[in-house]
Structure formats: structure tokens, C-alpha cells
Amino acid sequence: MIKKEMIAMLLAGGQGSRLGVLTAKVAKPAVAFGGKYRIIDFPLSNCINSGIDTVGVLTQYQPLRLNTHIGIGIPWDLDRNIGGVSILPPYEKSSNSEWYTGTANAIYQNLDYMSTFNPDYVLILSGDHIYKMDYEVMLDYHKAHDADVTIAAMPVPMEEASRFGIVVADSDGRITEFQEKPPEPKSNLASMGIYIFSWPVLKKALMDLKDVPGCDFGKHIIPYCHEKDKRLFAYEYNGYWKDVGTLGSYWEANMELIDIIPEFNLYEEFWKIYTNSDIIPPQYIADTAIIDRSIIGDGAEIYGEVHNCVIGSGVTIGPGSVVRDSIIMKDVEIGAGCIIDKAIIAESVQISDNATLGTGADVPNKLKPNIYSFGLVTIGENSVIPEGVQIGKNTAISGVTVKEDYPGGVLESGETLIKAGERI
């Protein structure tokens, strides 16, 4: 029988609705990050760097690009005969078939997969955080404390603690209480959604709670284990960790990569981040180009100015265009004479000559003020922006737009323009 000490289950089915048009056609873990990576590369790289060679990736929402990106796991050295990486979408069973309805329900539906490896421990991960972490150190902590469940927790400023699930631990690290987004937090240790379970404990909890609608780790499984007097411990993590679930945090995390001394370093030899890279030609920087403090992907052609940006592979920036404080994903074409300020532009967008993005007043978005904020212009993939238009701040655009969609050639700040038409 196969025996693995610890296997990882990576939850990558999320829609990421707070990323707005960026995730209209792609699962959040497959969204580009840092010019050449996708968000899921970080937990996958952490697994192989931590010596975990068996990873189940649970997909659900828009899985095509994620599946293609992961493939058989070659970039992460996860193409193994025994173990390796397995994509686990929901599937039809003889008695019933259902979508994954919560994080724990998704894991429950894959009990057979986990049982195959007869693991001692199961590591539960989320596919949408940017961080580097050695899970082996966390496992050592779990064993040393004879824990049933270990929860990775991160100190956050006390004034922000009410936004998180908070764990209260005694001096030994044993968890005595949980608070879900408490108005009066008793501690500043926020749960990171990273758990190590001893396999028998996880199995029993999943079986006992299998009929709970939308069964979730934070809301159901962890409180259940606590009630049953299981040994729950908090593993304190003090490194860089970013939930890139909002456009603001996603933009900030990308911008932090280009700091003079980046807080999160993609260039370390000993803890590499692996990805599935296309084979593309090198970048071309014209003699007219001016570039400072930017990451420029392979195959990019720069004829204009780029300041403080993360530019993906295969991007073209035309002569006389100035791009500032922006994230431009792969295969975007920016024409000549464009001005782009603080924008997030998704893959394969076409911006025609002399367009201006990020102009005007910083007024809230009328349709979704909690999503399209931070003064950003957000453009969904495969969109087309016509020549000479002006686009304000806190705006969102998706689809093939034409001059007529812009009254007087302007999309005012706070407006949203979503067109159904796709360009083939």
C-alpha cells in the first residue's frame, strides 16, 4: 500500500468576485501575478520546496486555464508516478452529484483520493495567497505539540483584527477560543486558512459534518474539533503573506515587487517560485524607450515610457505612450500616444492610439463601489478600447467597446462599461 507522511489539498475553486472583471473568465488562482507567474504558483512552489510531492488541486470555477497551466506538474517537479499533482474537479457519483459547496465539503468529496495515500497528516491550503512558507517547519511544530490540528496564524495590528478569524492561544500555543471577525478581538493572531490535520481527526470531522450545508473549515470543522476537546495549536508565522483578494491588495502586492529592496523577493536562489513559462523571444527595448523601476516580461516590446510598472510577457507599448503605476498582463497591445495611470489591464487587451486611462476625479464607482476603488482603472481580458477616448478613475471595462460607448469620447470616473460582445 502507498504511504505518504503528508499530502496537501489545495483549494483553488474560488471565483474571486472581489477582483471584478479580472476573474470574469478565469479562476482567481489562475490570475497573473508579478509579470510571469500565476497566483497558484506560490502555494505549489511552497509544497515542492517543503518536500511535499503529493498535491490535490480542487478546482471548480472556470478551471480551463488553471488546468492547462498546471498540466502534469512538470515545472514544480510534481510529475510523479506515485503522488504528484492531481486536478480534482467535482464529478458525478452514483448516489448524488453536487458542486463543492464549501471548503470542507470540497475536501469531504475527495476522501477517496486522500485515503489512497494513507497519510499521517493532511495540509489544507488556499490557492489565492502570495507568500513563501516552509510547511515542513509547521509539521515539526504539529508533531512536537502532539497536536490534532495546527492552524497557521499571523499577528495583525490589533485595530485590524476584527476583519479576520481570530485565534486565542495560551502560552504553550494551544488554542482556547475562536472569534470570527469579532468586534472586540481578544488577540491579534489571525488565521491564515492554512491547516495541518492528523488524518484520523480530519476524516472523522468530515464524516460527522458531511450533511452540514456549505460545510466550511473556519465555520464548522475547526469549532467542531475544538468542542470535541481535540488538541488545537496556533503556529505563528511572521513572514510576508498577502491575500490578493481585492483589486487594491492585488495592485499593492504587485507594486511591492518593484521596491528597491522588495519585501517579497522573487529572486532568491534557495526558495524558488516555479511556473509554467511559455517559450518566447527576449524583450525588445527601443532607443526611444524610457524605463524605470519596472518588471518587464519576456517578449515585450517597449517603444514608449514605463514608470513603476509590472509588465507581462508579449506586451507592446507604442511610441509616445506613457504608462505609470500599472499592471499590464501578457499580450496586451498599447498603441501610440496613450497615457495610462494606475491601471490593471488583463490579458490580450487592445488599447488603441491616443487613449487616456486614469484621468479625472477620484469618485466612487456607482455600480460596485466596494470592488472598483483605490483610484484604479480595471480592464477585463480580450477587451478593446477605441482610439482617443478618455477613461476616469474607479472604472471597469470589459468587452469590445467602440467610440459610441463613450459619450463625448469620455467614460467618467466611477462608471462601468460591460459589453457582452467578444472579439474572436
Automatic annotation (TrEMBL):
Q: Does the keyword Ribonucleoprotein apply?
A: no
Boundaries of every Nucleotidyl transferase domain copy: 8-257
Sites binding alpha-D-glucose 1-phosphate sit at Y100, G165, E180, K181, S191
Would the keyword Mitochondrion be found if you checked this record's keyword annotation? no
Q: What is its EC class?
A: transferase
Keyword terms of this UniProt record? ATP-binding, Carbohydrate metabolism, Glycogen biosynthesis, Glycogen metabolism, Nucleotide-binding, Nucleotidyltransferase, Transferase
Write down the InterPro entries for this protein, in alphabetical order: ADP-Glc_PPase (IPR011831), ADP_Glu_pyroP_CS (IPR005836), GlgC_bac (IPR023049), GlmU/GlgC-like_hexapep (IPR056818), NTP_transferase_dom (IPR005835), Nucleotide-diphossugar_trans (IPR029044), Trimer_LpxA-like_sf (IPR011004)
Question: Where in this chain does the record put each Glucose-1-phosphate adenylyltransferase/Bifunctional protein GlmU-like C-terminal hexapeptide domain?
Answer: 290-360
Q: In which pathway does it act?
A: Glycan biosynthesis; glycogen biosynthesis
What reaction is this protein's catalytic activity? alpha-D-glucose 1-phosphate + ATP + H(+) = ADP-alpha-D-glucose + diphosphate
- The site (Could play a key role in the communication between the regulatory and the substrate sites) lies at Q60, W99
A Gene Ontology MF term for this entry? glucose-1-phosphate adenylyltransferase activity
* Enzyme Commission (EC) number: 2.7.7.27
Question: Oligomeric state and partners?
Answer: Homotetramer.
- Tell me, what does this protein do in biology? Involved in the biosynthesis of ADP-glucose, a building block required for the elongation reactions to produce glycogen. Catalyzes the reaction between ATP and alpha-D-glucose 1-phosphate (G1P) to produce pyrophosphate and ADP-Glc.
Family statement drawn from the similarity comment of this UniProt entry: Belongs to the bacterial/plant glucose-1-phosphate adenylyltransferase family.
Name-wise, this protein is: Glucose-1-phosphate adenylyltransferase
- The protein's organism comes out as Faecalicatena fissicatena
Q: What is this protein's gene name?
A: glgC
